[in-house]
């Protein structure tokens, strides 16, 4: 059970997602930019910005991003935050509250890129944009030992994919990553896709299949860049996975953790009873959201401390 304020916010999120579903199922004549604008406007009201944090629009390697930073501190720590939205309907505006809390808790600058989305820009456009942002931040002088990646849903899967691309390209990996409710398997073949379908009010398997087809545009859902459960994940940085027990993505998040662990990646998995998709957005009104962010912050803090201390 969740408290009354959290339930009100959850109902508002479900309502805001209505036009997205109508567009996906061909029941709306609005174009995708307008659907995204309406969706983000509604979510921004539901999950507002917090005090003592600045929000600035910046451009990184020709990619627009939101920079979130504590207003009372100067820091050289950097977080690359990758928003969710099924690679189709996301945006940065809904993440002012969450990125603000991360910025304050970790004493870091948080960059959230506005990556291109399907159907106008299908696979692998979103991944290419996020990786370009990652490279550009390193090129700008960001210390990789004080650099971490956090993402949710599609962005949670990209946490792993961006690390893989850094490894394969021969550039520095971040100190660590946190994958929140990762959409790690676009085949939706895990058991929870059957037994949890209809429990999480935010994600049904049919809805996710629609998003996957829109994003992939003919590419196989088993492509390792789209579904990191099928990827070679050797030699990646430490990763924390946080998943709600009510999520249809539960089994595949567990499978992702197993894939990482078997590849000797230091991996932590948290399964949160009764929690739904990306409950972290409910910080300030849902205790489990505050606790999950605290756990993620400690994980990242420890990884940065170890990375910096190990290279003195």
SSE blueprint and pairings:
Blueprint: H1 4-16, H2 18-24, H3 32-46, E1 53-60, E2 63-70, E3 78-82, H4 96-106, E4 109-113, H5 125-139, E5 147-152, H6 154-169, E6 176-180, H7 192-195, H8 205-216, E7 239-244, H9 250-262, E8 267-272, H10 287-309
Parallel strand pairs: 3-4, 3-5, 5-6, 6-7, 7-8
Antiparallel strand pairs: 1-2, 2-4
Helix pairs in contact: 1-3, 4-10, 5-6
List keywords for this structure.
Rossmann fold; eight-stranded mixed beta sheet; alpha/beta
Termini gap: 47 Å
Structural class: alpha/beta
Helix content: 40-55%
Choose one word for the global shape: globular
Number of domains: 1
Instruction: Return the CATH architecture.
Output: 3-Layer(aba) Sandwich
Give the SSE order as H and E letters: HHHEEEHEHEHEHHEHEH
What gyration radius follows from the Cα positions, in whole Å?
Answer: 18 Å
The CATH homologous superfamily corresponds to Alpha/Beta hydrolase fold, catalytic domain
Low-confidence stretches: none
Strand order of the largest sheet: 1-2-4-3-5-6-7-8
Major sheet description = 8 strands, mixed
Quick check: average pLDDT? 97
- Output the number of helix runs: 10
Share of residues in strands: 15-25%
CATH class term: Alpha Beta
- CATH fold category name: Rossmann fold
Q: Report the count of strand segments.
A: 8
């Amino acid at each position: 059970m969740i408290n009354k304020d959290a339930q009100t916010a959850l109902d508002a999120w479900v309502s805001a997602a209505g036009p997205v579903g109508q567009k996906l199922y061909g029941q709306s004549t609005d174009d995708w930019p307008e659907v995204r604008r309406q969706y983000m406007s509604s979510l921004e009201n539901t999950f507002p910005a917090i005090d003592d944090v600045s929000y600035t629009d910046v451009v990184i390697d020709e990619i627009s991003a939101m920079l979130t930073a504590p207003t009372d501190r100067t820091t050289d720590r950097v977080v690359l935050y990758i928003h969710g939205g099924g690679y189709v309907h996301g945006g940065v505006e809904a993440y002012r509250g969450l990125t603000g809390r991360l910025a304050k808790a970790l004493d870091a600058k948080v960059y959230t890129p506005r990556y291109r989305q399907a159907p106008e820009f299908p696979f692998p456009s979103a991944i290419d944009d996020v990786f370009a942002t990652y490279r550009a931040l390193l090129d700008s002088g960001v210390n990789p030992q004080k650099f971490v990646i956090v993402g949710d849903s599609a962005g949670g899967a990209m946490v792993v994919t961006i690390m893989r691309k850094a490894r394969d390209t021969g550039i520095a990996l971040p100190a660590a990553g946190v994958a929140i409710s990762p959409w790690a398997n676009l085949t939706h073949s895990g058991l929870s896709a059957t037994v949890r379908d209809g429990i999480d009010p935010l994600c049904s398997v049919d809805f996710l299949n629609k998003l996957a087809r829109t994003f992939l545009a003919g590419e196989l859902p088993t492509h390792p860049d789209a579904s990191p459960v099928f990827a070679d994940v050797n030699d990646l940085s430490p990763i924390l996975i946080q998943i709600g027990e009510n999520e249809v993505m539960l089994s595949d998040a567990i499978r992702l953790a197993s894939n990482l662990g078997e590849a000797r990646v230091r991996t932590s998995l948290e399964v949160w009873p009764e929690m739904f998709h990306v409950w972290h957005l409910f910080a300030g009104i849902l205790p489990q959201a505050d606790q999950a962010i605290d756990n993620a912050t400690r994980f990242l803090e420890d990884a940065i401390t170890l990375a910096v201390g190990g290279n003195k």
